[in-house]
Every structure is written in structure tokens, then in C-alpha cells.
Batch of 3 targets.
Target 1
Amino acid sequence: MFLLSQTPSVADHFISELRHVDIQKDRMRFRRNIERMGELLAYEISKTLAYRTHQVESPLGMADSRELLQPIVLATILRAGLPFHQGFLNMFDNADNAFIGAYRGHNIDDDDFQVEMDYISSPDLTGKTLIIVDSMIATGRSLEQVYHALLRFGIPAQTHIATVIASPEGVDFIRTRLPQCRLWIGAVDEKLNEQFYIVPGLGDAGDLSFGCK
């Protein structure tokens, strides 16, 4: 697991603005800060990927260079994940893309709820690098369901899961249930509350980005 907040950086400033109840009122700024976090985490992930060497011709000669060895597929959960997804797409601009409609459904009881999934679109994942991006990981259950749903499109060579904010419970769930996936996180917060929301968190990322449902 990689935790961006372990080392002080400009990411701390972006996360601070994302949490701030007054700054959150500016939807464009909120979306842009989520996008920036995507760019930072995409860069960190890029350091671990495989590359092949090749030569590029410049106006004055030939230069040794590197290019990604495996194609990348960026997958996001609608709608809250869209600004985060854009940050990754800014870095991996030639990536293919997958989109999933998954959300909390009806409560089963006070201690549980259903995860509903009603839409999925994905290219072939066989042998590719899959990066699943979601702005927040609360329980981790929707991510587990999304991951297994994506496997019907092929088995990726490697899978990364990236998020801006996660709960300790969500992190433990993903690491236990999806040990084959590497986690990339901006910050891990204190806990989940009784309604399974991250505390202190930042609120509903989808509503803050695009307005109330």
C-alpha cells in the first residue's frame, strides 16, 4: 500500500481544501482538487510500471527514451469518480477506459446495506494494467464487486486501486479480499460512522462535484 500523506507535499494542501466546508462550495475548485490528486497518484503509480526503451528522433539527433510496456485501462465508478478519473487520464492520456455504475442501495438492516450495480462498459483487459479509481473508499464493498465484474472482460496483468480518502475499515477490507491489487491512497481517515460514512472525510464527493441527486 502507498500512502501519499506519509510524506508532506502539495497533496496535503489539496486535501485540506477538499475538506474545508467553505472552499467546498466552489464546485469547480473541488473538482479540480480531486483531479490534481489523480494526477499526483498517477505519477506515483507510473514509477512502478514496466517500460521498454526505444529511440526518438529530435531535430538534432536520436535520443534514448522509454515507453510503457503494457497498455493501461482506467476504470472508474460513476459519478463521484469522474474528476479523479480525469486526473489519471491527464497523465495516461492514451489509456483505454471503463465505466461502472455502482452505488449504495437499500439498507438490509442497521448494520448492512446492498451494493447496486446497473451499468458497466469496458474494453478487453487481458494482459493490461488495470487502474480502478474511486475518490473515496468507505467500506470497500463496492470496489470488490466492481473488480470481480470487470474480470468478465479479461484477466489484467496487474491491478491498482487508487483513492483520495479511505477509511481504515475499507483499507483492511480491500487488503484482505483483494490481496492481488495494490492500493494507492491520498489519506487514511479516522473511522467509519454508524451510517458507513468516512469520518472526518469530506462529505459526498459526487454531490460536491456535480450537485445533489
Target 2
Amino acid sequence: AMPDATARCRIAQMKNSVVANFAPEIASQLRNYGKLMRVDKPIGTWLLLWPTLWALWLAGEGAPDQGLFVIFVIGVFIMRSAGCVLNDFVDRKIDPYVERTRTRPLATGAVAPFEALTLFTALGLIAIGLASMLNPQAQLLAVVGAVLTVAYPFIKRYVSIPQFVLGAAFGWAAPMAFAAQTGGTPELAWLVFGTAVIWAVIYDTFYAMVDREDDIRIGVKSTAVLFGEVDLFVIAGLQLLMLLALILIGYRAELGFWYYFSVAIAAAMMAWHLWLARDRQPAGCFQAFLRNHQIGMVIFIGIALHYTFNPVV
């Protein structure tokens, strides 16, 4: 009996040793995958989520379908993560030469390219599963959204306005939400989409201003490079255009005081963001980018409050 007990003890020790050796490596690699998906940097998820919620609440007139809400919120996280993984895979030979991106997992070699593609495929399969729960109109739009997501990382090498493609990808959830909720895509759906596109060009130009010197040096195209010295002037013009689009959304959806009050707050926030970026210093531009998601949140609160106090009967 004693040898058996000794053998069992040795086996247990070997198992513990194996777990002790491999568990930290697995945990470390999972953290690297999380960084590749930007789980530690949720700003992109918020920027994608807010226009999606605008559209869901407008399409559902304040009472969107609960199942659709869950599908779209999960879908936002999955698609943003998939986009980040693909973006880093495409940029893996550029990122080591850009100050802001040189510590990304693919740039440092912490994650192999094959691992990144496998992760992207897994996320893509989850997205397909979510899309399969939607009606045919929304599924068709989901295919277009997937094409935009895949196209974006490649576009910035060939055109000077990749931010518009990013905006289309980020805003595409709007017509999808309307199609899923109502079975169609009315003018209001495309108004929300257009607003989301303009907004993406605004905040992603702030973001691109952080990397402008590096991008010029290595030949990456962006609106920050294209706009040059008139960047803040163009951003201000786009902000005015976005405000007009938001007012038009309010008019078309017959929204009231709470919504227009939220638009006024958003206008003040836009002016503040311009002030933050006034010297074109990377830190200020990055703060302007990070704080943009609060505009989306404020607009959503305005929409939600309107329907809370003016329920559709």
C-alpha cells in the first residue's frame, strides 16, 4: 500500500509541476490575445456602441427588442475586437516603427501572425453566429459590414481618407439595427449612418494627429496628413455638419427638449475637444480622441430621456 501511496504522491507532484509551468504561460498568452483585441482599451467599443444604441432606440421608438439589444451589444464587442486583430496583423511590419504602436503583441512578437489569424477567424465565426439570429434584411447588411471591417486595414495604404471607410464600418450598425427592428431601412436609418460617419472622421482625425509625424515618415495615409495645417479648421467644419445632422435626426424622429438639450451639450464638448487639440500636441489630440465617446453617450441619454418622458402609445 505504501508504494502505491508514494506513486500517487509523485504523480500528483508531477501534475502540479506541469500546471505550475504551463498555467502562467497560458495566462500570459491569453493576456496577449486580450491586448490584441484591445480588451484593455475599450474606447473603440464605446465609439462603435453609441451609434448602434442611437439606432436601436430610434428604430424601436424607445422600446427596442430585448433580444436584438443583446445581439447588437455582443456584436459590437466581437466586431471591434475582430477589426483590431486584423488591423494589427496587416500593420505588423509598420507598428514597430510607430511610437504609439510598437508595444502591440504582434509588433513585439508576443503573438505569432498565425495565432492572430486564428483568433480573427474565431471572432468572425462568432459574428456569423450572431448575424444568423437576425432577419434576412439585417443579414444582408451584415455581409456589407463585414466587408467594410476587412477592407479598412488595407485602405489606409492606398487612399488619403481611410477615416471615411472606418466611419462607414463603425456606422453600418445603424441601418442593420433598423432592418433588424423594423424590417426596413428608412431615411432616418441613413441619417444616423451618415452622422456616425462624420463623427468617426472627427475623432479618428484627432487620433491620427497623434501619429502624424510617424505616418508621414513611413508613408501611411490619413486625414491628419491630408488636412495638414488646416486640420483643426476642417474638424470644426465637420463638427458643425454633425450638429446639423443631429438636429435633422431630431426633426425626422420628432424628438423633443431632452434630445435637443443633449445636442447642445455635445456642441459644447466639441468646442472643448478643439481646445484640447489647439497646439496639435500628441497628448492633447489623444485626449480629444478619448473624450469623444462622451458625445455619443450624451446623445444616447437625450434619446432615451425623450422616449422615457414621451412614451409612444
Target 3
Amino acid sequence: MSFGARALIRLGALKHNFDIIRTTAPDSKIMAVIKANAYGHGMVTVAQHLSDVDAFAVARVPEAMQLRDNGITAPIVLLAGAMNKDEMNAAVQAGFEPVVHCPEQLELLEATSTGSVNVWLKFDTGMNRLGFVPGDAAPIISRARAASAVNELRLMTHLSSADEREDMTTPDQLRRFKPVIEGFDGSVSIGNTPGTLGWPAIADARRNFGFSGDSWIRPGIALFGVSPFADVTASELGLKPVMQFEARLIARKPLRAGAKVGYKGRYISDRNTQLGVISAGYGDGYTRHFRSGTPVLINGRRVTLIGNVSMDMIAVDLGPDAGDAIGDIATLWGDGLPVEEIAPWAHAIPYELVCGVMHREDSEAVN
């Protein structure tokens, strides 16, 4: 029995979440975003178990190559595109679908003669990160269509604030993008996770924005059972957590009122109680920014983190009448303790926590 922290990856929950997303936008194709090692869940394992997906999306060429090397044959979109001539040639030769988001990448595409692939042009409608100016769409689209490396041209944008459903940023972005895609005869992708789950106009984008190709959604965090909204839980969206991040109780001892706990002695106990030590720390991805009071689940009840997080261990207040035993499992996030509830205790977002799991010991995929 291992006493280190581990992430259990529940593949049944992954499939459940995929099906929920499919019902949210039934007329859309799904581009599953599995960059950053599938948000910490294991990119190859996730890809192998999403057999119904229409395409995968990763950030970089090496991620796409890893998927191909492990037998993934579905289309793969490169969200950051190619950074130089060699990467563009490699992407086209491998049949990947690069995103082209700047003049330099468009020039690389025009100079490529190693084959032809589907290409996504990205337009910046307000994120102010990657993408062409919408007002330049006509000449950019014309140049891309003339490139010999382009098989089918597709268009996309990215939403900066779709998780804030009362904010006017998303309607403003959609207003800027509509002239670009209205009347377009190819595929279009607008909806990330919050865009798809929070904005009905995006779930039915083809009818609402007047293009004739396929509408593609790009779910990421929702695949893994995490809500993108601060005011709605994953369970309220019908989602199940895929990652169960857990460790074991490795020590317990009496703690006197007034005793200091951990490095710097920043926590001082206000009562006589039982202290528990759990085998997880920032070396496992349980960030040092978690502060005293952070909930931990053990034997069906919530206890609280006390003191600073160490590299391999955390301390919790088990309570004065605790009957927990060495080897008992503590849930750091997962069933009964959603990661979106835990994240604010570290001034973090759920994406950051699940992506940060270090996998010091082998994670386990279970159905």
C-alpha cells in the first residue's frame, strides 16, 4: 500500500461529462481540449477513452506528436499554432490542424508546400491575446484560402469572460465576431467551456450567427467535472469530478492548546485536540498557498488544514474525539469536496490546482 498522494482518474465520470456536454450543444461538433496533460488528468489516457470525440485540441506540436505516437488517430488542433518553419512543416506532414493567429504564422503557412490540412484562422474579438483584428478579416481569409497548404479553412475566436454571465464582455465579443462569420461557408468555433454551458446563443451558433459550416465547441475543464462558474457547482451542471486527489493519514498525536504547528509556527492551537499528518504537500501539487482552515475530507467528515503546507506533508485538526487510524484515506478534492470549493482557500482557480498535480507516484485510472 502506497502512503503517498495520488490522483484517481475516474474514466466513467469522464464519459458521463462528455455526454452531458454533447446534450448541451447537440448540433455542434466537439473539440475536446486536453492540453497541459489534459488539465492534469493524463492526456493519453483521456484521449484513449474519449472515442466519440470529433477532434482533440492541444497547445503545442510536441503534445500532438505524443498523442499520435500513442495511437490517437482523431484530428488534432494546435491551439498555439506553429512557431517556425520546421514546426509548420511537421504539423502539416502529420496532418495536424494548426491555428494561425498572426501575420508571421500566415507567412509560414503560405511558404509550406509539404501537403494540405484544415487550418483555423483565429480572430481577436476582445481577449487581446492571440488573433487577427476582425476588421482585417476579408484580406486575411483571402490570403489563407490561396495557400496551397490549406485544405479547408475554418474560423475561431476565444471568449475572455464567458464565466461572468452578467458581464457585457461576451455579447460585445460576439457582436465583433458576427461580421467575420456571417455568410461564411466553413466551420466556426466560438464556445469554450463557459461559453457553451452559459450562453445559449453559442450552443446554437450556426443559426444565430449565420454561417453554413459546422459549429464546433471546445470544452476543457467541464470534461473533468469542474464548473467554470463561481456561482454554480459542477453537480448543479450535472457533472461528476474525474479527479479524486487523495493521500493517507501517516501520523496522529495529541495537540495541546497553545501549541504551535509547522514551519514558522504560524498556527497556534486554540484547544486540546488531535493533530493528524497527511502525506501530501506542495511536492505533490497541493499548493503551499493553502491556508489554515482549508477543508480536508477524512472518514466522511470535514477537518481543517492547520499550519503551513510542507513539501510532503500537511497537518490537520482531527478533533479531540477523533478515531481515525494510520492509513485512512483523506480526500484533498474530489467526491464530497469539489476542487472549485477548495481553490479559493489558495487564492487559486480550479484549473490551476488540477493542472498542478505532480504525479510523483503513479496515478490510477479507474472506471
